[in-house]
Specification:
Low-confidence stretches: 1-29
CATH superfamily of the largest domain: Galactose-binding domain-like
Order of helices and strands: HEEHEEEEEEEEEEEEEEEEEEEEEE
Shape: flat
Strand content: over 45%
Helix content: under 10%
Largest sheet: 9 strands, antiparallel
Oligomer: single chain
Mean pLDDT: 80
C-alpha cells in the first residue's frame, strides 16, 4: 500500500531535519563603549528660550547652544533610549554656566529611583569667555540609567544655564545567546594592582567568568575565575583584583561560561601599569595649547599622538627628550575642534594614554 503523509506531518519531518543539521553558533557578548550616548537623543528642559534650544545641547555641534530662562532651579535632561552603564558626563558651558548643580539619574524617568547615584557639583568656577569651560564629571561606580539630568541649584551669572554640549559616555552589551547581559567592564589602577569591575542586568544558568589578560590586545591568557551569581533580572556587581600586573599597557577581557559549556568573550579594556608621576598634562580642559610634563631618559625618543574618539589622528610628532624631565608645549591647530580626544605618549618600552577635553 502506498503510504501518504498529510502536509503537517511533512512539515514536522522537515523541521526535524533542519534541527539535526546543526544548531546556530553562539554569539559572543560584546561590550560596546560609546563616548556620547546622548548624541541626537531626545532632550527635555524645564524652560528654554526658543523651541530648538533643547536639541542644540545634543546635536554634536559645538557652535549651537541651549539656554534656559533666568532662574536658579532650571534643568535640562536627556532620554538615552535604553539603560547604559554611565561612565561620565561632559558639560561644555557657554558663559552662562552653573555654579552649583546636580547630575541626576533615573531608570524610569521619575528621578526618584537612583538618588544615591546623583553627583553634586558645588562652587564651580569657570571663565568668562564665550566658552566658559567644560565640566568632565565622573560617575559613581555601577551607575546604570536611561535618563540623565543637569539640575540647576545656583547660576554662575545673572543669566540662565547655557550649554553648547551635554554629553554622556556610557557602555552596554550587544545581545547574544548567552544567558547573561553585561553592561560594562572597567579597569582602574590602585597602588600596584588593577581592579576590574563589571555588571550584569540579566543572568541565568551562568557558570562564571574567566578573567583574561594580554600585553598586545590579541593573545590572551586566563589569570583568574569568578563564579556567577545567577541573580535572574536583578542587577549583579562583580570585581576582580589583578595583583601581579606586568609593566606597560595591559589588556583585559572576560570569557563568559554557561552551565552547558557555551562561551562568549567581551571586548577588551586597557590600562597602563606605569606610574602616573611620569606624566602630567595641563591645563584641562584645553583652550589654545596644552603642556606635557614627561619624565624619561635623555636621548629617548617619544611619539606624541592625539586622536579623536573615532580614531582620526589630528596630531602626530616625534620628540627627542633632552633630560630626565621635559615640558613639551602643543599648540592647538584648526583641526582640533572642541570635543574629547585621546593623547598617547609612547617610547620603545612604555606607553601612556590619557583622555583630554578641548573646549
Amino acid at each position: 500500500m502506498k503510504q501518504t503523509h498529510t502536509p503537517w506531518i511533512r512539515s514536522f519531518f522537515i523541521l526535524l531535519l533542519l534541527m539535526a543539521a546543526g544548531r546556530p553558533a553562539v554569539n559572543a557578548q560584546t561590550i560596546i563603549n560609546i563616548d556620547n550616548v546622548a548624541l541626537h537623543k531626545t532632550g527635555t528642559a524645564s524652560s528654554f528660550q526658543t523651541d530648538k534650544y533643547v536639541t542644540n545641547a545634543f546635536d554634536g555641534n559645538p557652535s549651537t547652544r541651549f539656554s534656559s530662562l533666568y532662574n536658579d532651579n532650571e534643568w535640562i535632561g536627556v532620554d538615552l533610549g535604553q539603560a547604559y552603564l554611565i561612565n561620565q558626563v561632559v558639560l561644555v558651558w557657554e558663559r552662562a554656566y552653573g555654579k552649583d548643580f546636580d547630575i541626576l539619574f533615573s531608570r524610569d524617568g521619575t528621578f526618584t529611583d537612583l538618588n544615591d547615584n546623583s553627583v553634586q557639583i558645588r562652587d564651580n568656577v569657570l571663565g568668562s569667555d564665550s566658552i566658559a569651560g567644560t565640566n568632565t564629571i565622573k560617575m559613581k561606580s555601577n551607575t546604570i540609567a536611561r535618563y540623565v539630568r543637569m539640575q540647576g541649584v545656583h547660576r554662575g551669572t545673572v543669566f540662565g544655564y547655557s550649554l553648547y554640549e551635554f554629553q554622556v559616555a556610557g557602555s552596554t552589551a550587544a545581545s547574544g545567546l548567552l544567558p547573561v547581559t553585561l553592561t560594562g567592564l572597567t579597569a582602574s589602577q590602585q597602588n600596584n594592582t588593577t581592579i576590574l569591575e563589571w555588571t550584569t542586568t540579566t543572568e541565568n544558568n551562568t557558570a562564571g567568568f574567566s578573567i583574561e589578560r594580554s600585553n598586545d590586545g590579541t593573545n590572551f591568557t586566563a589569570i583568574g575565575w569568578v563564579d556567577g551569581i545567577n541573580g535572574g533580572t536583578v542587577t549583579s556587581h562583580y570585581s576582580y583584583t589583578d595583583k601581579q600586573i606586568p609593566n606597560g599597557r595591559n589588556y583585559y577581557r572576560l570569557k563568559v561560561f554557561d552551565l552547558n559549556g557555551k562561551t562568549g568573550s567581551t571586548t577588551a579594556v586597557s590600562i597602563s601599569s606605569a606610574s602616573s608621576n611620569s606624566l602630567k598634562i595641563y591645563p584641562t580642559p584645553v583652550k589654545d595649547h596644552f603642556a606635557i610634563e614627561y619624565k624619561g631618559t635623555a636621548g629617548e625618543t617619544v611619539t606624541i599622538l592625539l586622536i579623536t574618539t573615532s580614531g582620526q589622528p589630528v596630531y602626530n610628532n616625534k620628540i627627542a627628550v633632552r633630560g630626565s624631565q621635559q615640558t613639551m608645549i602643543i599648540n592647538r591647530t584648526g583641526n582640533m575642534v572642541p570635543g574629547i580626544y585621546f593623547l598617547t605618549i609612547s617610547s620603545s618600552n612604555k606607553q601612556y594614554t590619557e583622555q583630554i577635553v578641548l573646549q
